[in-house]
Amino acid sequence: MEEVMISIRELQQLIDNRQWKELRQELEKLDPAEIAEIIEELKREGDDIILFRLLPRETAKETFFRLEYDKQEELLEGLADRKHLLAELLNDLAPDDRTALFEELPGPVTQRLIQLLSPEERKISIQLLGYPEDSIGRLMTPDYVAVKPEMTIEQALDHIRQFGKDSETLNVVYVIDKNWKLIDEIRLREILLAKSGQTIEDLMDKRFVALNVLDHQETAISIFHDYDRVALPVINTEGILLGIVTFDDVMDVEEEEATEDFHKFGSIQDLIFNPAKAKIFLLYKKRIPWLVALVFMNVFSGAALASFGNTIESMVSLVFFLPLLIGSGGNAGAQSATLMIRSLATGEVILKDWFRLTGKELLVALLLGITMAVAVGLVASFRAPEIVTVVGLSMIITVLTGSILGLSLPFIFTFFRLDPATASAPLITCLADISGILIYFSLATWFLGI
């Protein structure tokens, strides 16, 4: 909060003294991001509503956009008795931002807020909310500029000046035919530099990249990365231009997907965007399901260990190397899974690469296992030389098993149309523990003739 020019305490004093003019003047010195930060920090009930109502209309819109969803919902509830102000705010929001907000709210609340929109904005919101969840249709905005191929450069520029003020971006202008079918996209720079006698058709090469309205939002992420675009058009199966998706919206999705994957990789059930602000029970509720499931899975580790009681009694020194061996298998598996989950998410690897990558992973894991076996063998030669061979062979096989588990689980989840991030580190570690115990003590039992 070092950049903020007014402290929370000073702001609250202005509110307590009802010095609205001075408070508004202080707020005018701040940009929307700083105001949003202050609103998030306010603890006293009602202060956030008072502050928000003092903001100019444009600043209020920009500030609202930068707030967390739970804070947005609080403000909407606080403004419920100010329907005029609430209607202005919702109508001013960009359609894609408004759709993202409505998705987070309970159904009845969303329906009530939709009724506050103007007929035109209401129609847009209902249309966007009608697309499948997480589809590109929910992400797009209908605010763009489209021109016809027969337009002259002068006509096109006049058209852009007239309708460009409402466009999400002006970097690209889209060319459509009489049926609104997308036939090309042209950078504004090309139109500005064209000769006065030319038409839009003279600038066309009919080469463009478009998203399908029903595709998953993750598709947009990979295409934006591949083609380095500021915006991409969205079409239906007939090629009709429905809207555009901009880079900043896709980055929001990518951040959310990355957060979700990290949480799944740590066996956290759902998203927690800001742990510092989350309630204790919420943090507990999100983390406990997987942890309880893993407790029951680890029962198998105990059962496997108990089944080798005679072996352990005969050679107690075996226990010394057990944590090291099963830990190495879990670590190798987690490394392999991390690489595969990322590669599957970015599209660098697909299902048919499974067998080819398995062969490569076997060779890599074999080299890793041999290297680690030499290291643990040196330790065993001093600690328990009679089981050096058992420990060395167990290390190689355990690392091989853990690595193949780590590689295979993301592919298996993908095959069954599940999120590969669900093949999280704790799950892989648990499976590696069970397999490591079985491998280690089975080898020891056989080698020592117990």
List the helices and strands and how they pair.
Blueprint: H1 8-16, H2 20-28, H3 32-41, H4 47-53, H5 57-65, H6 69-78, H7 83-92, H8 95-104, H9 107-114, H10 119-129, H11 136-139, E1 146-147, H12 153-163, E2 172-176, E3 182-187, H13 188-193, H14 200-203, E4 211-212, H15 217-227, E5 231-235, E6 241-246, H16 247-265, H17 280-306, H18 309-314, H19 318-346, H20 354-383, H21 388-415, H22 425-448
Parallel strand pairs: 1-2, 4-5
Antiparallel strand pairs: 2-3, 5-6
Helix pairs in contact: 3-5, 5-7, 8-10, 15-16, 17-22, 19-21, 19-22, 20-21, 21-22
Q: Could you describe the largest sheet, including whether it forms a barrel?
A: 3 strands, mixed
- N-to-C SSE series? HHHHHHHHHHHEHEEHHEHEEHHHHHHH
Number of domains: 3
How many beta-strand runs?
A: 6
CATH architecture of the largest domain: Orthogonal Bundle
Annotated CATH homologous superfamily of the largest domain:
SLC41 divalent cation transporters, integral membrane domain
From the 3D structure, determine the CATH topology of the largest domain.
Answer: Tetracycline Repressor, domain 2
Strand order of the largest sheet: 1-2-3
Low-pLDDT regions: 262-273
- Provide the gyration radius in Å: 30 Å
Shape, per Cα inertia axes: extended
Task: Outline the structure in words.
With 450 residues, this protein is mainly α. The longest helix is centred in the C-terminal third of the chain and has 30 residues, at 354-383. Helix content is 65%, strand content 6%. The protein has three domains: 8-134, MgtE N-terminal domain-like (MgtE N-terminal fold), CATH 1.25.60.10; 146-253, CBS-domain; 280-448, SLC41 divalent cation transporters, integral membrane domain (Tetracycline Repressor, domain 2). It is built from 22 helices and six strands. A three-stranded mixed beta sheet has the order 1-2-3. Helix 19 (318-346) packs antiparallel against helix 22 (425-448).
